Amino acid sequence: MTTYTLHPDTKCNPEEAFQASMPWEIPAFSQPEEHVPEKDPHFHFVESTTRAILMGFAKNRRVYLYGPHGSGKSSHIEQVAAHLNWPCIRINLDGHITRADLIGRDMVVIRDGKQVTEFVPGMLVWAMQRPIALILDEYDAGRPDVMFVIQRVLETQGKLTLLDQNQVITPHPCFRLFATANTAGQGDASGLYVGTQALNQAQLDRWHVITELGYMTAEAETQLLERKLTELPSEQIQRMVTCAGLLRQAFNQGDLTTLISLRTLIAWGENTLLLGDPHEAMRLSFFNRCDEVERVLVSEIYQRCFDVELS
C-alpha cells in the first residue's frame, strides 16, 4: 500500500518547469509516489492551458478543460502533476460508471479467515481522503445520477455525506479535482462526439476555471514531432503537418466530417517508422476511417503535399 507524503514539501518555479509566467511559486512534492505519472521529456506545454491547470494545483481551483479529441487535455494535467510529483489518477466517466463506483458499496471481504460484510469506498471517496489530483475524463458523457454525486464536491471545501454510513467525508487539503471533455458543456453541434450531452448549468457554474485547448500551431506540432520521431526526415514531418493543417481547414469549412488529431498525426509518424512507407501509414492511420465519399478530397489534399495519390 502506498504511503503518501501528506503535504507538499517544496516549491516549483513555473517559468523553469513549464515556461509559464505565474505570480507565485507552485507547491510540489520532493519525491514521487506510486501514482505520480511518468514525465514525457518531449511534451509541449501550452502556456494558457498550463496556467489554468497550475491554478488548480496551487490554489485548489476546480478546472474544467475542454477541446477536440487528441489535443492533449488529460496529458497536460498529468504532465503538470508529473513535474510536481503530485499523485494523479484518471476516471473515465463512461456509461458503466455508477454512483456506487464513485461512492462505494457494501462488499463481502475476508477478515481473519471469515467472510464479513463491510463498506468499501469508491474511487471518489478514496481520492478525496488523499493528496491526489483526480481527473474525470469524458466529463460531458457522464450519467446524470453520477454527475449529481460529483456536484456535491465541486466547491473548494465541498464535503461528501455518505448517507448509508452516517459519515461526512472532508476533502484532504491537497485533494485536487479536474475534468476534461470534448464540449464546453452546451452539447455537441458538430456530430463528432456521440454520447455527449449538455451539462446541468448549476453544476457547470461550480467549476472555478474553464479553459479550452485546441490543436497546436503548425510550428509547435512540427517541433513536437521532430522531438518524438527523431528518425523521420524534417522535410517529411513538415509535409505531414501541412497536410494535417489542410485537412483541418477542410473540416472547418464543412467539407470533411472526420478530424485529424495530434494523436493521429503521431500515430501516422510511428506507423511510418514501422512500415518504412508514409503513404501506407497514412491509409492505416487516418484515410481508412474517412467516409468513402470524402476520401476523394483527402486524396487530393494528400497529393498536394506528397505528390502521391492515395487509393
Distance between the termini: 54 Å
Please identify the structural class as seen in this structure. alpha/beta
Tell me the name of the CATH homologous superfamily of the largest domain.
P-loop containing nucleotide triphosphate hydrolases
pLDDT averaged residue by residue: 89
Number of helices: 12
* pLDDT < 50 runs, ≥5 residues: none
Q: How would you describe the overall organization of this protein?
A:
With 311 residues, the protein is an alpha/beta fold. 38% of the residues lie in helices and 17% in strands. The chain has helices at residues 14-18, 47-59, 73-84, 99-103, 123-128, 144-151, 201-204, 218-228, 234-252, 262-275, 278-285, 295-306; strands spanning 10-12, 26-28, 63-66, 88-92, 104-111, 114-121, 133-137, 160-162, 167-169, 176-181, 209-212. A hairpin with a 2-residue loop joins strand 5 (104-111) and strand 6 (114-121). Helix 8 packs across helix 9 (234-252) and helix 9 (234-252) packs antiparallel against helix 12. The longest helix is centred in the C-terminal third of the chain and has 19 residues, at 234-252.
Compact overview of the structure:
With 311 residues, the chain is of the alpha/beta class.
Keywords:
311 residues, alpha/beta, Rossmann fold, two-stranded antiparallel sheet, 12 helices, 11 strands, 38% helix
What topology does this entry show?
Elements: E1 10-12, H1 14-18, E2 26-28, H2 47-59, E3 63-66, H3 73-84, E4 88-92, H4 99-103, E5 104-111, E6 114-121, H5 123-128, E7 133-137, H6 144-151, E8 160-162, E9 167-169, E10 176-181, H7 201-204, E11 209-212, H8 218-228, H9 234-252, H10 262-275, H11 278-285, H12 295-306
Parallel strand pairs: 3-10, 3-11, 4-7, 7-10
Antiparallel strand pairs: 1-2, 5-6, 8-9
